[in-house]
Amino acid sequence: MEFSLNSDFAAARLHLHRAYDYLCGSDEVSHKSRMALDLLIEAVVTAECTQPRGEIIPFPKNRRARGI
Length: 68
Fold this sequence. Notes:
Blueprint: H1 9-22, H2 28-49, H3 63-66
Helix pairs in contact: 1-2
């Protein structure tokens, strides 16, 4: 049996931004870490924007079709 959980990309992005803010040092490790986080944030944003949206349900355009 396979279970599928949906990722919370918005929450992940928020936490990655916070981690980026905590790495405010001017040392090389902080700089490289921020660069790596930039890549992760970009990947999360891409995943978030490519998620399938809900189904669009067409509505009747005239009043007779709606029964009004």
